[in-house]
Amino acid sequence: MWGSGADALGGRRFGLTGLESRLDAWARRRLAAARNRGVRTFLIEFAAFVVKQAWATLFGFLLLVAIVAARVFYPDGLGIASNDLLTVAAILIQIAMVVTGLETRRELRVIVMFHIVGTLMELFKTDVGSWSYDADGFLRIAQVPLFSGFMYAAVGSYMVRVYRLFDLRFDRYPRVWVTVIVAAGIYVNFFAHHWLPDARWVLLVAVVLLWGRTVMTVRLLERSIRLPLLGVFAGLATVIWLAENIATWAGAWSYPDQLDGWEPVSAAKLVSWFLLMIVSVVLVTWVYPPRPADARTPRSVREGSGRPSVSAL
Fold it and tell me: Which pLDDT score, from 0 to 100, does residue 68 have?
């Protein structure tokens, strides 16, 4: 159930993999059979949305499962530290996704960028005591186990996959060079606020001013919906915060207030994750430049009420 998989001539569009294209064709046949049947058509489109989201989160989901499994099922005396085991598991997941064609090489380049950016942040943040990892294992740099970079890569994997799976288009997207400046400021502030005044609220205002009017068009199968981009960022930040609660409960890392016993991650982290979404989006635009709403999209989608409507992309 994959939107935008084939054009009118039957060829692939938007870089879908072979498996995705076959699933797209299968879903479109079901949609054609259900034409003008109201609820059934809606359910097929809704199922396409759910399956696409699940597919986009595949890497992050498998990594989170590995983290929880290391907490629940890790046997004593295994001979390999749990952190090293998680690093090996993350590498194997990544290799399997590339070899089997579940992930494109283009996506892999973005994931590597996220891995580097995330690892640099981890090295600094653990050094200043913002959070900490268990000291076991050999596959680490300083205090940072190598699997930690894959957690940022999971965010990158989701961002690039969702971009092409949903054929994302944007109305009133800000100039890319301006977004790069703001994203750089956000990233620098993650480090600099330990010595300088925290500029996160100034940066948050800048984000609202830049992206406040941006609307994202999301393609399902033949139906497109319009969503406010800042609302999407807030939703993704909440999902990551929930995953962070699961990961810290599983002992992947700990914040200072969790060292004497686990407790939920502070809701203040939602702002940090929201700002990190901006950095993530800007990184993705280096590989997938934001595209405006297609000229062939009906006026009701490009300019209208925001209600779901059939798209003729």
Answer: 92
